[in-house]
Write a structure and sequence with these properties.
By secondary structure, the chain is an alpha/beta fold. The protein contains 9 helices and 5 strands; from the N terminus they run βαβααααββαααβα. The chain is globular and about 50 Å long. It comes from Thalassotalea euphylliae.
């Protein structure tokens, strides 16, 4: 059984995922997989370098994400090219890792679970929910970013309403009370264990 964990930027997905990990649940994180498929020596990085040239590499041969981001966010056709290359690679690697997971149920952590249609590939959608104002406030505290950049990211993700409409389960993280979040995780853990057993 696969639980898809999602939520907008700054909602606390990592915190929630860590609580599940503490309960010995195997986790596959789409963001980590996205980095793994472009590590030096991978087909992903080779194709990116062939297409964009050496300018997208750091001196150590790893991908210069900032440079690549500058290119693709100013040119939609380049962004589409990159997505067409990476999305299938990421998806394949995600499901390879999930198939190797040994826990009674597994967690797929994906910020863009709904946007990328991965919600159709999981048994339950679990949304970590906070308000848009809290997303902005918490992300500003966490990242060295500007309100404009964060608001652009929020706008690029599905709306809070759409996300909640797709949710089978919701963790309320609006109070930032970690004990309360952990209690919600424990309750869902029991539910998922019994679902997985049936």
């Amino acid at each position: 059984m696969i639980i898809g964990l999602t939520g907008g930027i700054g909602s606390g997905k990592t915190t929630v995922a860590n609580y599940f990990a503490n309960l010995s649940i195997d986790i596959v994180d789409a963001d980590i997989v996205a980095r793994e498929v472009v590590e030096p020596g991978t087909m992903g990085l080779t194709k990116i370098t062939d297409h964009f040239g050496e300018q997208v590499l750091k001196t150590d041969g790893s991908l210069n994400r900032e440079k690549l981001r500058q290119i693709v966010f100013t040119d939609n056709s380049e962004k589409q090219w990159l997505n067409q290359l990476l999305h299938p690679l990421i998806r394949t690697e995600i499901f390879t890792q999930l198939s190797k997971a040994k826990s009674p149920y597994k967690l797929l952590v994906a910020p863009l679970l709904i946007e990328n249609g991965l919600d159709a590939q999981v048994d339950n959608v679990l949304v970590v929910d906070i308000t848009k104002e809290q997303q902005l406030e918490r992300t500003l505290k966490r990242d060295n970013s500007t309100p404009e950049v964060i608001n652009n990211i929020i706008s690029a993700q599905v709306s809070r309403e759409e996300r909640l409409a797709k949710a089978d389960d919701v963790i309320d993280n609006s109070s930032a009370n970690l004990t309360y979040v952990e209690q919600q995780v424990h309750k869902l853990h029991k539910k998922y264990l019994s679902l997985a057993a049936s």
